[in-house]
């Protein structure tokens, strides 16, 4: 059973995640992002409600549109990319968000700096 959580708690939970997230609705409009002011790719509140295509460089809009179209048409559920940015490895993932019946609700973008994760070797089982 899921207990009802306040908006404040949900926002704090999403901000505590070690990833940046952005939600784009079924009409390709940006509806939410976490970690305002502390993101890998800066976001301004001004993007809320605008088409996601306006948030990406012109050279990548065709890729954005292909991902969203594939999500809408159930051709894929995710898309993954990674780039090098200022000496860091950035992992960018997109996930189709669907309701229980499979209806497309939008897209979740998840961005994470994985530079330090890539350096992990062996095991760590104890708290420092």
Overall description:
The protein is an alpha+beta fold and 128 residues long. It is built from 2 helices and 5 strands; from the N terminus they run αββαβββ. The protein has helices at residues 7-16, 61-72, and strands at 20-25, 30-33, 78-85, 88-98, 104-113. It has a 5-stranded antiparallel sheet, with helices on one face. The model has no long low-confidence stretch (mean pLDDT 94).
List keywords for this structure.
5-stranded antiparallel beta sheet; 17% helix; single chain; 5 strands; alpha+beta; 2 helices; 128 residues
Helix content: 10-25%
For the secondary structure, the number of strands is: 5
Summing up helix and strand content along with how strands pair, one would put the structural category as alpha+beta
Segments where pLDDT lies below 50 for 5+ residues?
none
Could you state the oligomeric state of the chains shown? Answer: single chain
- Helix/strand order: HEEHEEE
Task: Provide a brief overview of the structure.
This protein has 128 residues and is α+β, with helices and mostly antiparallel strands. Helices cover 17% and strands 30% of the residues.
Topology readout:
Blueprint: H1 7-16, E1 20-25, E2 30-33, H2 61-72, E3 78-85, E4 88-98, E5 104-113
Antiparallel strand pairs: 1-2, 1-5, 3-4, 4-5
């Amino acid at each position: 059973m899921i207990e009802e959580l306040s908006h404040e708690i949900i926002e704090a939970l999403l901000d505590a995640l070690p990833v940046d997230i952005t939600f784009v609705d079924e009409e390709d409009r940006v509806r939410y992002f976490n970690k305002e002011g502390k993101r890998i790719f800066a976001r301004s509140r001004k993007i809320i409600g605008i088409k996601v295509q306006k948030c990406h460089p012109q050279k990548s809009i065709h890729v954005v549109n292909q991902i969203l179209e594939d999500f809408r048409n159930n051709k894929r559920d995710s898309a993954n990319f990674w780039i090098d940015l200022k000496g860091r490895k950035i992992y960018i993932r997109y996930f189709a968000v669907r309701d229980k019946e499979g209806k497309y609700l939008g897209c979740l973008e998840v961005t994470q700096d994985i530079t330090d994760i890539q350096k992990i070797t062996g095991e760590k089982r104890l708290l420092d």
